[in-house]
Amino acid sequence: MIPLSVLDLVPVREGGTLAEAMAEAPLLAKAAEEAGYARYWVAEHHGMAGIAGGATSVVLAHVGNATSRIRLGAGGIMLPNHNPFVIAEQFGALDAMFPGRIDLGLGRAPGADSRVGQMLHKDIAQASQYFPQDVVELAAIFAGDPRLPLQATPGKGAAVEMWVLGSSLFGAQLAAQLGLPYAFASHFAPDQLDAALKLYRERFVASERLAKPHAMAGMNVLCAETDEEAWYHASSMDQSFVALRTGTPGRLKPPVAGYRESLPPQVLAGLDHTRQVSAIGSRDTVRAAIAEFVERTGVDELIVAGATFDPAVRRRSLGLTMEAIA
User: Fold this and answer.
1) What confidence tens digit (pLDDT) does each residue in 44-54 have?
2) Dihedral of CA 319/11/20/257: which sign?
3) Exposed (0-12), middle (13-18) or buried (19+): which is 300, by Cβ within 10 Å?
4) How far apart are CA 322 and CA 326, in angstroms?
5) pLDDT at residue 40 tops 90
6) Spans of all domains in the chain
7) Is-contact 143 221, C-beta < 8 A?
8) Homologous superfamily of 4-220+300-325 in CATH?
């Protein structure tokens, strides 16, 4: 059975509060832990009313205190927004709190539009050019490289599992060169998945961290008792995708029966293309979709994305999905 992990954006519901979203995060992580998922990851986004995971390391500390076994990680930290030394301190602290359980996925996108650079007082475009060097520097800080002018405490010696994230060939090539595991964001950017996996495997160079290529892919997954029920609840996620693509992102909306049928053909086509890496339906439907995707791509792990207006529906989906593939 392929390992499954969970990607959480810590969604804020329409009519709900940030406090409610934060309270739901550990409940989701505990449900994933009890169902046998390998990892719980939070993604860094900024300036989005419906996503509460911007302070990623803080959310992970909150979740860590409610769990005991599942690995906790960033999926990911958008490194151009940050100083590598500060990230080493944050994730070194998490490793000290929850030893042997911390992952650090690193991406070079800003996790927001161009305004985030203004708010962070950074030239994000320029900082993105130094992403490879920053990843190397971060690894050196964790390793306690004696050539560094200052050692990080916490940070030095932390057993943090570093990953490179991506949705293009750039991340695949960097992960291969550095001998790091690689995670592809196929749940929202599927176009270059196959080419990226091929490049990563062909160019992989073994390292002290990893002896052979290890790739994970994102998949939108929502499992319910019937296909109809699953698609109904998935309409909240559909509405979020459409709102984001049309420049009107907001809080997670309640499900709408027949939502997809209400969309103009060009909008529906764009939605279907963006979310082509999905498994939505009953146990049988989800089992078949996951099996087909794994057979085609040969990925080593899957990380399941998706949000539901009723958080209990997603927790139930995690359990049903695990039942389906077991």
Assistant:
1) 998 889 999 99
2) negative
3) middle
4) 6
5) yes
6) 4-220+300-325
7) no
8) Luciferase-like domain (3.20.20.30)
